[in-house]
Amino acid sequence: MPGFASKLSRKLLGILASLLIAYGFGEILTRLFVPDPAFRRENRIEMWQSDPLVGYKNKPNFHEYVWGFVPLSTNSMGYRGHEVAAPKPPGTYRIMALGDSITWGVGVKDSDTYSAALEQLLNQQEAQKAGVHFEVVNTGVGGYSTHQERLTFERDHRMLCPDLVTLGYTSNDFYPTEDPFWNVRTFHQPAKDNVQRSGDYPPVIHPRLQFFWFFRSMVKKVYGQHNLREAAALTPPLQHAFPPGSFEDRSWPVLVGHMQAMKKLADQLGIPFVVLLFPAYPQVLSAEPSPFPQSRMAADLEKAGIDSINLYNAFRGQREGLFVDWLHLSPWGNRMTAEQILHRMEQKDWLPHSSASLKTCGSSEAGRAGPSAASASVR
Prior knowledge:
379 residues; alpha/beta; 39% helix; two-stranded antiparallel ribbon; 11 helices; 5-stranded parallel sheet; 12% strand; Rossmann fold; single chain
């Protein structure tokens, strides 16, 4: 018996030593060939800063790996992607993309957001025709509501001088899904009583075990894709109306009012404004002609004279590959979104015919419209 115990101990020690050696090699390889995985800092407060106007915004000049080993870079203005000049350079057609985490691009690289894909398409297909350079500025911030997107437009249009504005909309845009500094509730309209923060944001200190965090992020990616494949075999129940008297039901006029205010500002600036209606993954799996609430939003926007693109029509029937999770788009989904925007620009004759047709902004432009809080309140 003592001999058996001794053999077992040696085997266990051998297995443990093999695992430690394998881990050591993994640590060495990831440190040599994998960029410093600061994605270990996955708590989102790391990439945001408090802002008195909109509650919070992206940190400028932020370069990290977040949400599953995805590289993230913001420029000096806090927008995701490359640097943007202000004032706008001559000969530049600039699109301002407003939105939440779908626009920001959860789960995809900077170059795989729909803003980046649209910029690439425009410069490949249209730049030489008109003799202009195209820029698409991704002003999206994870967790933003339509109200925060309106405030962003009212504040940043002076600096960006856009020729076209797009607004991303999805079904959870009534109220922010994030409030990292616990200040959004003090000004947001529609208002919510007794708001419970979904999670705290304590400082996170991780040991520098690079291989461990790399392996963890890869497992999360595989698990997320597995969940989507499992969901593809189901027919999920879909919502067809908001419960009467619910927060969403009472807030709907305020939400549409924010979009009407953005349309009014765009008209004052003499530029087109279009709303992108994003479906969720379960909606794309359905056989319905147009799911709720996007169908209701499309109808209300049409009544208000606001242009919209219902992306469900393009995504319908695509069971795999469009999403990285239940809501956020994959590189392919973002590419399809960019193609739909370009198609609408062609339909509406929004593409410039020459550099002479581009919008120019002077000092007087700054005084024409500015940030304003929504006046309607829903409680």
